[in-house]
Amino acid sequence: MAMASLFISSSPSFTLPPKTYTKYRTAYFLKPFSLKAASTSVDQQPTISLADKQPSPFKANSWQWKFQDKVLTIYYEEHGKESPEPTKNILMLPSISDVSTVEEWRSVAGNIVQRASKINWRAVIVDWPGLGYSDRPKLDYNVDVMEKFLTDFISAPDGPMKHFGNDLVIFGGGHAPTITLCAAKKGLVKLAAIAAVAPTWAGPLPIVFGRDSTMEMRYGLLRDTLRTPGVGWMMYNVLVSNEKAIASQYKSHVYANPDNVTPDVVDSRIALTKRKGARYAPASFLTGLLDPVKSQEEFLELFADLDGKVPVLVVSAKSSPKRSKAVMQALKGAKGVSKFVEVPGALLPQEEYPTMIAEELYQFLQENFEFNI
Q: Which of 15, 56, 223, 287 is the most exposed place for a label (fewest CB within 10 A)?
């Protein structure tokens, strides 16, 4: 299939921030960039190298998702190169959080698709509705909404992936692989393989304070307050949408090495939290409405259901917060997990250490697809 057939024209209403649009409106097929290997000790927290963050060409685009009585403009990117080799497709899903963005996967995607291999790997990265550069209307965001979106994005007759078929590899961070596995368990998504990078299933408040009836009532009160006009926006600005909060979040648990939290990283994430409707989906995430399961047992069952059916890679991050790391470590040797690796990083190793993550993911692809050709 010709690559050009995938390039759906952007909607006239779709816009990126001027700085971002100018920086990334490059043509899709430019000359390949050179990759530089960076060696680091697993006992140290390496800093990000320039080679890690070197941009690669991609196609920015949008898709109109019809949900209930609304039409949302969904932002996605296509990464790939022209090649005579057979093509296989990867869908990359960002972690769900107040700073969720396709940017966390850009360097990984560029690294993988530009490699010379027996398969022409092509990647799509998509922003979840209510997050990143996608539209953020005032919806009752919950896990069913996100699962419905994922299913539609993959299988809709007018969708960006309508020609991809069911032979799909999915890479996801945080909640994303868990939502994907829930959809797969219901038969809504057919997987060729899946990689879960720093996987989670509980939002920030439930993972710390639990989900008893008293806490659920408090979560609901907080969520309703964050969604109200005026007061909700003021609270979101104080709690999340400011330089101190974003920097603290990244230094405490998003990145492993505080030196990697640069002003550019902080500024770009603040810009995301200032977008119209920015607080609605994060309010649901913070209070557990986007949690795909309610217990660690259910979480493990999702992976067990794929045992012997689909290759599954789990990437755990050494410096993740204690409770989040316990979730990841429970998958070591778990039924259904084909391969388990541990890498430097915290909750966004794919963004902080993209070269390392790309190497682990590419090895996984080779072991399950290329070596058999």
A: 15
